[in-house]
Amino acid sequence: MAKFCPKCGTPYEEPATFCTGCGNSLSAPAAPAAAGSNEAVKIVKQYLKIIIAVVAAFALLMGILNLFGTYNVTAEAEFYGYKDSTSVALSELREDAPDEAMMFVLSSYIMGLVALAVGGLEGYSFYLLHTNAPGSKKFFSLGALIGTIGSAVALLMALFGSNIEYMGVEMSMSVNFSYWLVLILSGAMLYLDKFLLKNDYAPLQ
What integer pLDDT is reported at residue 166 of this predicted model? Predict the structure, then answer.
């Protein structure tokens, strides 16, 4: 039965001494995990495929939502066709909104592209893990890192650009919940990768 490299999860057959995926020594004993984290690591590894698949699906959905969804625009008075609270497509907002609102529009495009990137990377990570192919951890880590940094930047841009005053009229655009969701999911994956799983990434057999 094939065993797995404790660092990257690449399968190997004994009596191999070095991992073909990352070069890690297979003869040295893996560093023992803290007693308190053993159970958490076991649970995460048991459901790792499901976790990655769910994150990938949600990220792809959030990407589509940000690129093609609608936003609520509220103005004190009728302005640019918006009165009270109106649901506006991003394409319409891009064409009709004043220049001051472009920060918000740009943040939505960034968030959409970031979410699609996370979905693609995590989806490929799931495929590699499911087929026991090397490299799953690399794409898992990259997706978590891009998602955390990208969604944080997009969220700050959206919050900064969502409330503006243009020609004496106050306008407010609601920040889509997908910003927070992608940030939370990506941050959780980054924590799993860097602090919980660490070098013990081999799936349970």
Answer: 55
Closest CA to 154 of 125, 123, 186: 186
Flag whether pLDDT at 120 surpasses 90: yes
Q: Give the three-state DSSP class for 6.
A: coil
CA-wise closest residue to 151 among 120, 126, 185, 194: 185
pTM over 0.70? The answer is no
Instruction: State the Cα angle at 91 between 120 and 165, rounded to 5°.
Output: 115
Give Cα 144 to chain centroid, integer Å.
5
The contacts of residue 145 (CB under 8 Å, 6+ apart) are 186, 190
Identity (one letter) of the amino acid at 15?
Answer: P
* 20's tokens: 């073909």
Amino acid identity, position 200: D
First vs last C-alpha separation in the chain? 10
The 3-class SS string of 38-52 reads HHHHHHHHHCHHHHH
pLDDT digits (tens, 9 = 90+) for 36-66: 456 666 666 677 788 889 889 989 988 888 8
